[in-house]
Structure formats: structure tokens, C-alpha cells
Amino acid sequence: MAQQVESFGLNVRSAHFDWEEYEDRFDDIVYLLSLLKCPVAVMPWLTPEARPDTTEGWTDVSGRLAGWAAQLADHDICFTYHNHDFDLEGHPGETPLDLILAQDALHWQPDIGWLAVSVPNPTDLLQRYSGRIVSIHAKDADPSAGHGDERWRNPGQGVVDWPRVLSVLENSPCADLFIEHDETQNHSETLLTGRGFLTEQLLARAW
Length: 207
Known about the structure:
- The protein is α/β, with parallel strands linked by helices.
- 44% of the residues lie in helices and 13% in strands.
- It has nine helices and eight strands.
- The protein has a four-stranded parallel β-sheet, with helices on one face.
- The longest helix has 20 residues, at 187-206.
């Protein structure tokens, strides 16, 4: 895989691994990231059965994540958490995401689409943790379309206030905008539309 990436002239900027892989194959993760010259490892998801239902449980999760972050830092790898919706539930400042990012060693890869359908003021949350953002999933959403995968939209085709989002990101360590649409019917269209839209937004801000 590393040879294929290099032959196509690509750069692997981050990689997602499940909780079980960090537990059981940590050395393999480090080895793979070194082969790919990838500087960021991401915790993308916890299965429903693995999610705590207490503050103490999430505090334990955050401590485990911080331990992996310290180990990865020894290899010059940044450890990052990627949100969905379950980790945004609760009072502001007391959500699972808040408890996770209370650990200074952990960084954040916000999923902008999930923020748009889960919290009243996504940019307020982005601003609160702007110093921890290393990349985003640039996904848009239309909450009025329902509660399932039919909500997702290409960047610029939903309700996300992209000028405000990009304004926050300008003052953060964010280096990568990963275009995403969970259930796109046309991958090429999503990539081209998303890249074109974000490029226009960034060029407009440059003036």
C-alpha cells in the first residue's frame, strides 16, 4: 500500500484506526504510519456497546486515549479524536467530547456535518477548542431532510455556515480539509463539488 501511495504521488495526511486496533495492534499502527509517512493517527468512533453511560466512564476513556497519545508522540505522531453525535450529548462543557478534550495531549478532527445536526452553535464549539483542531471532515447537512443518512450534503449544499467555520479555522492549527459525504451517490461529483466550493471560499477570504 505504501508503494502504491508513493507511485501515485499522494500524501497520506491522517489515518483512522478503531479502538480495538489501538489496544491489540499498536506497534503495527506505528509501523504502518512510518511506512506511509503519515503524521496523524485518529480515533474515529466507539461502537455503541463500548460507549460509557457515566461521566466516570468517559473520564476513563479520555485517560486511555491520552496514554496512547503520549506513546504516539514518542514517534512524532499526533493523536486526534473524531466526533460523531453521541459524543456531543449532554450539557455544554460536560459532553463526552469535552471530557476527552480535557486531556491536553489529545487533538480534534471535527466532523462539521455532525456538528451541524447535533449542536445549536457549531462555530462556538469550534472556537472553544480551536487550538486543538488539526483537520476537519468537510461535510454539509440538511437537518430538515430527516435523521438518517439522507441528511448529508456536499460542502456548500447544506446549512453549514462555511465562512464562519473557515474564520475559526484560520486561527487554528488546522492543516487539512477532508471532503466527505457519508452516503454520496456520486463520489467524483462530491470530490469535485467540495473541492471547488472550498477553494472558492478560501480564495475569497484571501482578499
